[in-house]
Each structure stands twice: as structure tokens, then as C-alpha cells.
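C-alpha cells
________________
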Amino acid sequence: MADSETLLSVRGLVKHFPVKRGVVISRVAGQVRAVDDVSFDIARGETLALVGESGCGKSTTGRLILRLMTPTAGSVRFQGQEIATLPDERLRTMRRHLQIIFQDPYASLNPRMTIGDILTEPMAVHGIGTEASRADRVRELLAVVGLLPEHARRYPHQFSGGQRQRVGIARALAVQPELIVCDEAVSALDVSIQAQVVNLLQDLQQRFGLSYLFIAHDLAVVKHIADRVAVMYLGKLVEIADKATLYARPRHPYTQALLSAIPRPQPGLERQRILLPGDVPSAMKPPPGCRFHTRCLHAQERCRSEEPALRDAAPGHRVACHFHETLPRPAESSAASAVGESSRFALRLAAFEAARQRAA
């Protein structure tokens, strides 16, 4: 259960990438509006999932929060302290409290370093402990993520993808952070390994009181790990709510379409798939008004000219849609709360959880 204390506050976050053209004389020909006025909070001990199609700006948002990229505009406050404009020296100290688990477990680990060196490096950078205490800490971290002490002497190529991601999790934990950005942390793993890593992340959250920004596109995984879900489309948030509300009563047409696309393992189960027309518009030239109106089945003239604000539709439920009150409810949405339970991921998760309980 998330604590009411706000750990991270993001307001009006913007990131535009200039597009330059010309060989001899380079000039800015446009801007890619990757993130455009994004705002949300994360409470201490909470998991906020950020979901949407590839290219919608999810990963860019996570990197802006950590200042791996410099925002064009906006505010990112961690425990009340502004990060977006923090000087480099103070930012290095702040980064001890903010860590990231990268998507690709094969590219995120230095192949020239042993696992022990990989886990020791962040502690050395932040001046944590002595050489002996760091070695003890490495053994502790390996045990926490389910690896053996002798694994510290091995290199990344000697591990499977799931084991490498466990090393990535251990590296993020090395400096005892309070917030971890999980950037598609399980998307590159097999479904059975996903279940193990998701269980591990939840166990670590309960043990250390961690907060997560969980970036993903698999809504079945999100159903199991998130407390709240924020849906992103073309650089903007279109809906945010607690997971039970969002899965049971999605109010934005884009969220409804995403939920309808979740595969169901039962062949005879009736479903109503919402097929969106057209393609995602270019982030260089987003459409005027509502950015989703070019693909929305319920768009009206107001949608083409006036951009909807992210406003309260119910307590704790915000939607960026002019007509969300009058939209027809999808026929399948009444069963949406069972989406995660009927998914292949959930079946794997339940099987792994049962095996873990038997072993205990």
C-alpha cells in the first residue's frame, strides 16, 4: 500500500529534440516533441506504471526524471528538491537516491567487468564504505536477488538474460536508492522469467520500502505490479488512475483500445477488439487539438481544434478527453478486472508463486 507522502513530483515536463538539416550549413528544421507537458506524482512505497505504444515518450520521461537527459522545460522535484536545474556536483549526490534498471540486460552490463566490479563501482563512485565492506555488500546484494557469492567472479556473458537482469537490479540497489525507474525491465525476458523478476521487484519493494516508476507496454504485467497506471500517447498523458479503476472502467478511447488488445489464452472466450484506424502521427507535427483525434472512433469537431486538459473524472481518476462522460462503455470492459488473471503471464506467475511457497 502506497504511503501518502509524495516522493517525486513532476510538473509540466517537456523534452523537444531539434531536427537539423543541411550538410554545409546546418539549421533547425523542426522539433520532435517527445514529451509535452507531462505531470504526475509518485508516493513513497508506490509503483506508478507508465504505459503506451512504442515511441510515445515513456523511456524519455524516465530518463528526464533521472537527468540522464536535460529537460526542455518543466519541474522534477524529489523530496521537495528541484532536480531539473540541479548543478552537476549536487546532482551526483542526488543520484544515489534515484536509480534505473535498463531494458536490455545484454547491453546494460560492461562485458569487460566482473559482476563484482559492476556492483562495486556505484558504491565507489559515491564513496560508500571501505573495500572490505563493499565486498560484503556485493555478497549481500547477490543473495538478495537470488544469485550465489561465486557469481561475483564471473563476467556478464556467462549468465542468462534473466540472471543478467538480476545483476542489473542488484546494481540499482547497491547505493540504497529510494526510487527506481524500471525501463521495460522485463520486456526482453521469457514469460516465466518475467514472473520471477516481477516477484523479485515486489519482494524488494516490501523489504526496502522502494518506489518504482515502472515503464512498460505489457498491460498484463502492469496489472500485477502497479498501484496506479498512467497512459501516454504521443508525448502526453491521456489517463491516470489506480489500476483497479483503470482496468474496470477505462474512460479514454485510447486506454480502451489498449485493454482490448491484451491477448486471451482461452480460445472460446468472447472479446470485442477495438481496432484503431490509421497510424500514430509524427511527433514532429502532432495534430492540432486532441492528439488522438486522428485515430479516435468518437472524435467530434471540438476534438480537432481544442486540446483537452487532463482533468478529474472521479476521485483519483484523471482523463484528457472532452467527451469521456458520454463515451459508450466497451462490451468487454466489465470483465476487464480479470484481464490479468486470464493472461498467460498470470498463469505463469501463479505457477511460480506456488513453487516458491512449496520451497519455503
